[in-house]
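All the exercises in this workshop are built on plain-text protein records. Instead of coordinates, the fold is spelled out as a row of discrete tokens. Once this layout is familiar, the rest of the handout is easier to follow. The record below serves as our worked example for the rest of this section.
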Amino acid sequence: MNFNRILVPIGCIVLTVAAWQSYQWPGVALVVSGIVMWILLHFTRILTVLKRATDRPIGSVASAVMLNAKLKKGVNLMHVIAMTRSLGALQSEKDVQPEVFRWTDNGDSHVTCIFTGGKLTEWVLHRPE
């Protein structure tokens, strides 16, 4: 279970209630402004990553070997897209878990990544003979 889906909204509510009890409306305005700023920062990061990914073909990467070395278990798909600056080529059926994406370099080496629930669970590097 992903506790962030529960803890973040509860934390926002607790902060808002604490701000109300301490400073009334000015406190609530400050907390809500902080939450909106936090949301906008994440939205801006997503747009920046996707804007950089539009410059490359789908599923391409500069070096599959370097991508393989940089990958870590548990990172999300957006992090991998930011590293490769390219959207992965979807290998599994759409909207089916686990999602399988592939990034290929100019030497036909490729990294196949498996994401379960949006998090990287495993990856395989394939290098041609």
Summary: The mean pLDDT is 93. The longest strand covers residues 119-126. The longest helix spans residues 25-53. The beta strands are 89-90, 99-104, 110-116, 119-126.
